[in-house]
């Protein structure tokens, strides 16, 4: 069974959206903005997304080499 990075990211994005919704309800607006930026940086292209694609590239490279 092969899992694509996009499928994993879709699951993660769903969870990130839920986390941000809860944080928005719980935090003052100025703190929520900072928290949102941090979460999106860590889970998005500057963080988890890049790490995930690199992991898949490394894994597929080791299969071919």
Task: Characterize the structure shown.
This protein is mainly α. The chain is built from 3 helices and no strands. The protein has helices at 5-26, 29-43, 48-64. The protein is elongated and about 50 Å long. The two termini are 20 Å apart. The model has no long low-confidence stretch (mean pLDDT 93).
Using the alpha-carbon principal axes, give the shape: elongated
Structural class per helix/strand content? mainly alpha
Weakly predicted, low-confidence segments = none
Sheet with most strands:
none
Determine the N-to-C terminus distance.
20 Å
Task: Give a brief rundown of this model.
This protein has three helices and no strands.
Keywords summarizing the entry:
single chain; 65 residues; 83% helix; mainly alpha
SSE blueprint:
Blueprint lengths: L4 H22 L2 H15 L4 H17 L1
